[in-house]
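Anyone else keep sequences and C-alpha cells together like this?

Example one:
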Amino acid sequence: MIAQTERLFILTIALHFVCACVYSEPFVSQPSTFVRN
C-alpha cells in the first residue's frame, strides 16, 4: 500500500514537471490558460 502511494506520488510529481516544461511558454504568456487546465 505504501509502495503504491509512493509510486503514485512520484508519477504525480513527474507529470507536473513535464507539464511545467511543456507549458512553460504558455504559462508566461497566458497564465489564465494554465490555471484553467
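And example two:
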Amino acid sequence: MQPVFLKVCQVGQLLYRATKQAITPPSINPKDLRVKEVRTLLNYPLDLVKEWLHSRNVTSPSELDTTKIDELVKTMCFAWAGNKFEHPNHAANSYQKHVIDAVLRGVSEMEAIQAWMEGALAQLPELN
C-alpha cells in the first residue's frame, strides 16, 4: 500500500509542477510591455495601437526602435489629452514638462504620465 501512496503523491507533485509551469506566462519584450502599460493607463484602444503599428509595417512594438516607441507613447498621451487642454500647444508643452523632463530626471515613465494625467484633470474647470 505504501508504494501506491507514494506514487499518488509523486504524480500529484508532477501535476502541480506541470500546472505551475503552464500558468507562468512567457517573458514579454520590454518594448511590448512599455506600450501595454501606457495603453492600459490611458485606456487607449488596442485597435488604434494595432492600426498605428500597421501603418509602420510592423505587428508589435518590439519590432520598432526606441524613438518610434516614444512616438507611439506620445501619440497615445496626446489622444488622451485631446479634450483636457484648451489648446493643443498647451498639451504638448505640459507633456514635455511633466513627462519627458521628469523621465530625464529619473522618474519612471509610468509615474510621470500618471502625475501628468492627474495634473491635467485637476485643472479642468468642471472638476474644480
